[in-house]
């Protein structure tokens, strides 16, 4: 006579467990994450230093703090939404000579990428980006960029940058438009780079609940000072 009672008790425990875990799983799948923003120009001022020289990426710059991340669409049952991750673990520098950006390199610590759900971050690092094997992503400018058209009065300008992106062990040439701001003693560059994750060998597990689009973007904002 005790067996039905035991069975019902087990079922009740399972239901309660699912009820408590369900919201966590749903949150991990549906929260929008943390996205790297574009330029903030509200408190920009006129440039106080010449644009020529070597500019080094700095970690903190107020609203224009350096960060690099990704945004991809997730296809969920009955809806489609975007998910983003970002990191401030970014280093590098650019060189400007005669108003032309002649060289530039950026290195991103992929292990530092964060959304707003820690379990999702761990999953992305381990099963999607394989950061144990590919701990960094890099971008190297491959074509000189004329930046003489960028104003020195605190207003942003736009340039087109071409370079080699190395992600997940695969290197490909990419081209994108970037907003450039000269403000005070800083140079800030921000923009998005469209990418197809399959081109870089980034596969995602086949989950029943969610599927990640192949096409997405890298979100980039770099604050720099001359040293």
From TrEMBL:
Residues 54-225 form the Lipid/polyisoprenoid-binding YceI-like domain. InterPro entries: Lipid/polyisoprenoid-bd_YceI, TTHA0802/YceI-like_sf. Signal peptide: none annotated. Belongs to the UPF0312 family. PANTHER family: PROTEIN YCEI. This is YceI-like domain protein. It comes from Corynebacterium durum F0235.
């Amino acid at each position: 006579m005790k067996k039905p009672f035991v069975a019902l008790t087990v079922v009740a425990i399972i239901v309660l467990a699912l009820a408590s875990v369900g919201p966590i799983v749903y949150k991990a799948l549906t929260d929008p994450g943390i996205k790297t923003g574009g330029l903030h120009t509200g408190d920009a001022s006129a440039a106080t230093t010449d644009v020529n020289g070597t500019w080094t990426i700095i970690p903190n710059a107020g609203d224009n703090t350096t960060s690099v991340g990704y945004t991809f669409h997730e296809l969920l049952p009955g809806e489609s939404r975007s998910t983003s991750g970002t990191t401030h673990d970014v280093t590098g520098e650019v060189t400007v000579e005669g108003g032309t950006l002649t060289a530039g390199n950026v290195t991103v610590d992929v292990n530092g990428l964060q959304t707003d759900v820690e379990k999702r971050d761990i999953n992305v690092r381990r099963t999607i980006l394989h950061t144990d094997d590919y701990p960094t992503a890099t971008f190297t400018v491959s074509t000189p960029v004329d930046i003489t058209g960028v104003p020195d009065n605190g207003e942003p300008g736009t340039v087109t940058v071409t370079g080699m992106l190395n992600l997940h062990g695969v290197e490909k040439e990419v081209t994108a438009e970037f907003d450039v701001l000269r403000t005070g003693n800083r140079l800030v560059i921000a923009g998005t780079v469209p990418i197809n994750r399959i081109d870089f060998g980034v596969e995602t597990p086949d989950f029943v609940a969610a599927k990640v689009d192949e096409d997405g973007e890298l979100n980039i904002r770099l604050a720099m000072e001359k040293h």
